[in-house]
C-alpha cells in the first residue's frame, strides 16, 4: 500500500497562490532585467526587477513553510533563489564578453 501525502482542502488555495506567485514574480524579474539589459526600457526600472526577485524569494519561502519542508530542503530552495538571482547576471556578462571578443577578432 502506497501512502501519499495529502493536502487539506483549506491549505490548497494558499499553496496554489504561493506557487503561482513564485512563477509570476520570477517571470517579471527576468523580463524587467532582460529589457533593461537590452536597453528597451530605462535602467531606472532595474530596482523593480530586484523587488520582483525579493517577492519571488518570499513567495518561495512561504511555499516552503506551507508544505512543511525540513530545514535542508528550505536551505536548498534559498540557494536556488540566489542562483536565480545570479544566473541572468552571469548570462549577460558572458554575452558582453563574447561580443567584445568577437569584435576584437574581426579587427
Task: Describe what you observe in this structure.
Helix content is 80%, strand content 0%. The protein has helices at residues 9-37, 46-66, 71-106. Helix 2 runs antiparallel to helix 3 (71-106). The protein is elongated. The mean pLDDT is 88.
The oligomerization state is single chain
Helix content: over 70%
Task: State mean pLDDT (0 to 100 scale).
Answer: 88
Helix-strand pattern: HHH
Identify low-pLDDT runs: none
- Biggest beta sheet attributes: none
Structural class: mainly alpha
Question: What count of helical segments does DSSP give?
Answer: 3
List keywords for this structure.
3 helices; 0% strand; mainly alpha; single chain; elongated; 107 residues
Amino acid at each position: 500500500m502506497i501512502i501519499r501525502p495529502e493536502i487539506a482542502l483549506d491549505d490548497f488555495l494558499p499553496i496554489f497562490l504561493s506557487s503561482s506567485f513564485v512563477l509570476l514574480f520570477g517571470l517579471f524579474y527576468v523580463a524587467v532585467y532582460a529589457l533593461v539589459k537590452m536597453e528597451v526600457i530605462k535602467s531606472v526600472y532595474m530596482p523593480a526587477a530586484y523587488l520582483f526577485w525579493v517577492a519571488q524569494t518570499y513567495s518561495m519561502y512561504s511555499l516552503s513553510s506551507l508544505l512543511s519542508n525540513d530545514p535542508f530542503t528550505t536551505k536548498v530552495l534559498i540557494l536556488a533563489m540566489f542562483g536565480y538571482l545570479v544566473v541572468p547576471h552571469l548570462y549577460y556578462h558572458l554575452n558582453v564578453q563574447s561580443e567584445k571578443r568577437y569584435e576584437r577578432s574581426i579587427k
